Amino acid sequence: MSTPEADGRPAPARSRAEFIDAAVDEIVAEGERLGVRPLPRPVVEADGDDIASVRWNLSGAEIPPDALIAAMEADLAADSQPGSADGQSGAATRSTEGAPLDKAVRTPATIREAVFTARPVRIGKSGIVVDARARDVPFDWLTLPDGRHTAVSALQRGTLGSAEVQAEAPTQDLVDLARLVFGRALASEQVRLRRLDLELSSAGRRAVRAQGAVAARKGILSGSVRASATIEVDDAFVLRLRDVALTSANPIIGVALLVLRGRIRRYAEDFAHDLATDLPPGCRFTALEITAGERLTFNAEIAGSTPA
Description:
By secondary structure, the chain is an alpha+beta fold. The chain contains 5 helices and 16 strands. The chain has helices at 16-33, 65-79, 171-187, 251-259, 261-270, and strands spanning 43-47, 50-57, 62-63, 95-96, 99-100, 105-123, 126-143, 149-153, 162-170, 192-202, 207-218, 221-233, 238-247, 272-274, 283-291, 295-304.
């Protein structure tokens, strides 16, 4: 297997077929590192310069909760690194074992269809169903001066055909998963999570009302807080908070929340997360729907940004 590059791509290979095999090997190796079982290989079918299809079915796979926590921690660490927000990271000019990529011959190509299925994938006892499909995903083959081959994304050209993502899970399963994840995260700080309850309900086509309670103990100190908020995605696909409220029966915590009430309100009013920043460069949401109740469902449609 090829040695992976610093930016996550496999090292250049003698042929495109070998490069594809190395890329699949890297995906499988990462899954094995996280303890995913069983872990089938993605199936890739090439057709000339293009990739006719990529299919990966993880139905029935199990992901240990510790792996999820490790992945979250790794993502947070990566996001904190300087320049991590740069989706393109200078790939067009990075040197590869002495062969600068800007001297490579580019051949535009397309992944005609990529399909990911998990019906379900289990994280601990939680079962999550995911169906994702993308069409006409652009990339470039690069032929280096020494004849080896590698590939880079070309999504920045804004030519993605379309993509759809549907995900759903029993709400209680997600609450149990959150309890497990946050419980282990707090335990690393010597804090014991005593209670975490959460109820979710639909508050609009792209809005969810959340009400819950959390109780924790550290040493001889303990306390609980009840919280409620509405999480919504506006027409510009920006995530916002409203109607945030925090209360506590513990008089010390209650006084602290009263003192911080203005700051909490301002934080909620100012909070805005553009969901487009979670997509690859050159992609945008065109539709999004979230429903909550006994099951939490998420349906999204994605397309390429209009080229400049």
